[in-house]
Design a protein that fits this description.
Blueprint lengths: L4 H10 L41 H20 L5 H15 L3 H17 L9 H25 L2
Helix pairs in contact: 1-3, 1-5, 2-3, 2-4, 2-5, 3-4
């Protein structure tokens, strides 16, 4: 499955000016045996959403990173949180082909935006460092998604 052309453009532009090496951690989950059924006393797992695409896991993480950056960048005086919201809206326009996809992307963004609010009330050196690391991670995710799935 390929990214839409609009999504490819959005992702490339999103972190194009981000300096530094890419440093995204590998995110893997242990897979259970294929075709294994849950025990009789447990409900069946939900059926996979037909709109789930191979790059959705990375796209969800990217949305979460963007939400966190929207919060941190304003907190640390960069005053570009609105630009991150605009980028997220562009991403949702490009990739939110169904209500479920839009809700999933919006939820990831909101998780990122609200996740640090309880602990960060002012900019600290740690907040600045986290913002820099998230910029690098977002750039790496953007490059990985577009290089693997872009049109």
């Amino acid at each position: 499955m390929r990214l839409s052309c609009l999504c490819t453009v959005v992702l490339v532009a999103m972190f194009a000016a981000t300096p530094g090496p890419a440093s995204a951690q590998a995110r893997g989950q242990a897979a259970g045996p294929q075709g294994a059924k849950p025990p009789a006393n447990q409900p069946e797992p939900p059926k996979p959403d037909s709109t789930v695409l191979p790059y959705d896991r990375d796209l969800d993480r990217l949305a979460e990173v963007m939400g966190t950056l929207a919060f941190l960048r304003d907190l640390c005086g960069h005053n570009d949180g609105a630009a991150w919201r605009d980028r997220m809206n562009e991403l949702m326009e490009a990739e939110g082909s169904t209500p479920e996809r839009r809700n999933r992307l919006a939820g990831a963004y909101n998780r990122g935006f609200h996740g640090l609010q309880p602990g960060y009330h002012r900019c600290t050196p740690a907040a600045d460092l986290l913002g820099e690391r998230l910029m690098r991670e977002g750039a790496a995710l953007s490059r990985a998604i577009t290089s693997r799935y872009g049109t």
